Amino acid sequence: MQVTKQGGFLPIESPDARFVCYDKGNVAGVWRVPIDGGEEILILDQLKPGMSGNWAVVDDGIYFIRFDHVNTDEEGAILFYDLATGRVKDIVKLGKHHIISGGLSVSSDRRSFFYTVWEHPGGDIMLVENFR
Length: 132
Description:
mainly beta
């Protein structure tokens, strides 16, 4: 059954199993649509184009990576978007890596993140743990 009508990448079921969350590749944002179909809604407009997959849905919000592919001197960061308040807060700085799309995961206790950087051909998987 087709769920989206205007495209979408990397679908993730919401923790409450009511929605499919996804991004659109080269379009900013994270979107959601009801599992059984309906209108899509932009739920996070701060995910930059080209950062496909660099976000993770949890029960109360979305963790996402802020990074500018053009300005590689910018420090990347993991941020949290709170669905209830609409506020975004910085969680941890990632340094000046060339962060590539396709991979942000958060552990179930939310104390560790995995993301992908491009330091040399092939890339590397990075771990951030025990942050406060």
